[in-house]
Specification:
The protein is mainly alpha-helical. The protein is rod-shaped.
């Protein structure tokens, strides 16, 4: 019987401890429910804070995007300037090539004309020599 009594006391003690633990959990749960209830009542303030946070984040993103747009606009402007300069160089190069081709054509024509003049000069010298020889032979007779 004493043994049953001790087991009963032990069982009561265990149950009392278990009850105390459950009451503590219940108390903590009630406090959490109250805290969450207060948060829900303040939910409108949380929505406002959330909206303000989103607005700030969006403004930050917009600022970064504007900076990127400015940078890229500068890059585009620089590339356009380089493209204009390249086009000017290409036009100048084309004009120089055209001038060179014209000069080569004039040089070729001048060389041909010079060759014709040389041929004419050689022919005239031969005619002159021949005429001199004919005249000289007439005087020798």
């Amino acid at each position: 019987m004493e043994q049953q009594l001790q087991q009963a006391k032990k069982s009561v003690t265990e149950m009392a401890e278990k009850l105390a633990g459950l009451e503590e959990k219940l108390s903590k749960r009630d406090l959490e429910i109250e805290r969450l209830g207060a948060s829900v009542e303040k939910g409108r303030d949380l929505d406002r804070l959330n909206m303000e946070y989103r607005n700030e984040a969006n403004e930050s993103i917009i600022l970064q995007l504007n900076q990127q747009v400015e940078f890229l606009t500068g890059q585009v402007s620089q590339l356009e300037d380089e493209a204009k300069a390249k086009k000017q160089y290409e036009v100048a190069l084309g004009a120089a090539e055209h001038g060179r081709n014209d000069a080569e054509t004039r040089l070729r024509l001048a060389v041909e004309e010079n060759a014709q003049i040389r041929d004419t000069l050689v022919r005239l010298r031969e005619e002159l020599n021949s005429t001199r020889q004919v005249d000289a032979s007439k005087y020798d007779e």
